[in-house]
Amino acid sequence: MNTFSTTSKTTATKPLVIKIGGAILEKESALQALLAVIAKLRNKQVVLVHGGGCVVDEMLAQAGFTTEKKHGLRVTPSEQMSIISGALAGTVNKSIVATANSMGLMAVGLSLNDGDMVSCELSLLELGFVGVPKTNNSKLLDSLLKTEFLPVISSIGALPSGELVNVNADDAAVAICQLLNAELLLLTDVNGVKGSDGEYLSSLDHEQAHSLINEGVIAGGMTAKVNAALHAAKQLRRSIAVASWQSPEQIMQLLDGQGVGTQIQPH
Ligand SMILES: Nc1ncnc2c1ncn2[C@@H]1O[C@H](COP(=O)(O)OP(=O)(O)O)[C@@H](O)[C@H]1O
Ligand SMILES: CC(=O)N[C@@H](CCC(=O)OP(=O)(O)O)C(=O)O
């Protein structure tokens, strides 16, 4: 089934949420190429959600902290939160916005809790200040999209108590997608999800994904991404694409209904 087409009546008016991983920031030309494709998407409302794990790694190391990940998620002690939020909601968010604006895209930098879009609960996985996002209010995004701004959202969130939390950017993108009932594209530094034979899979269902995670074939940041995509696919009852930001022209192919990367299935 083509769930990613501008020609389908049900999806024609849906906004498109594109998540970009941090590694794109180390390749300015790739970010510019992606933004150039976004600029060409006439009549399509686009929201960018970004990570920046590699920038967080660098800034924590510069401050003399060590860092560890569990299930692909960063353990976040309270004393590291100001560096992490400074890296993601500050440095990374502002530089993406500035690059987009230099290309005439009218970008606006936001974080998850702005306009009460999304609030967070603490993760039950005992990871410190790691948040699980819950959708709240789409008013801010609705009005920005209506007035043709490009929202650029970092994965820094907040608890109802007002404390900041670190949210995996794939989970953040899923929450924004749910908030807008949007289409979702998870762009990363590889062409999709690889199976046991090392080849990219064109499609991945729930059962296959869990065995590949248990076997360690899907590991690190890809675990968090596949889990986030499975959750979104199930909730939205449509497949979610994991593809590469290295070939942004693939976005056009996806919008034309051609399968690229790995399609994560709803069951
Ligand atoms: N089965 C797999 N298929 C593809 N990539 C995988 C797989 N298992 C682990 N990875 C790793 O996951 C990385 C992507 O996750 P991550 O670095 O968190 O990306 P992003 O920053 O885009 O969210 C890939 O660069 C790759 O090294
Ligand atoms: C809880 C958690 O893991 N947060 C992530 C947020 C950034 C992120 O997800 O960046 P990428 O998309 O580049 O991996 C982190 O601290 O690295």
Q: Could you characterize what this model shows?
A:
Helix content is 36%, strand content 21%. It has 267 residues and is an alpha/beta fold. It has one domain: Carbamate kinase (3-Layer(aba) Sandwich), CATH 3.40.1160. The strands form 4 sheets. Strands 5-8-2-1-11-13-14-12 form an 8-stranded mixed sheet, with helices on both faces. A two-stranded antiparallel sheet has the order 3-4. Helix 1 (28-40) links the parallel strand 1 and strand 2 (46-50). It is globular, with a radius of gyration of 17 Å. The model is unreliable at 1-11 (pLDDT under 50). The protein binds adenosine-5'-diphosphate and N-acetyl-L-glutamyl 5-phosphate. Adenosine-5'-diphosphate (ADP) binds next to helix 7. GO terms for molecular function: kinase activity.
Measured between the Cα atoms of the first and last residue, the distance is 14 Å
Helix segment tally: 8
- Look at the structure and give the CATH class: Alpha Beta
Taking all Cα atoms into account, the compactness measure Rg is 17 Å
Percentage of residues assigned to helices: 25-40%
Return residue spans where pLDDT drops below 50 for at least 5 consecutive residues: 1-11
**Average pLDDT metric:** 92
Q: Specify the overall morphology.
A: globular
Bound molecules: adenosine-5'-diphosphate, N-acetyl-L-glutamyl 5-phosphate
The CATH topology assignment is Carbamate kinase
Subcellular location: Cytoplasm
Catalytic activity: N-acetyl-L-glutamate + ATP = N-acetyl-L-glutamyl 5-phosphate + ADP
Enzyme class: transferase
Protein name: Acetylglutamate kinase
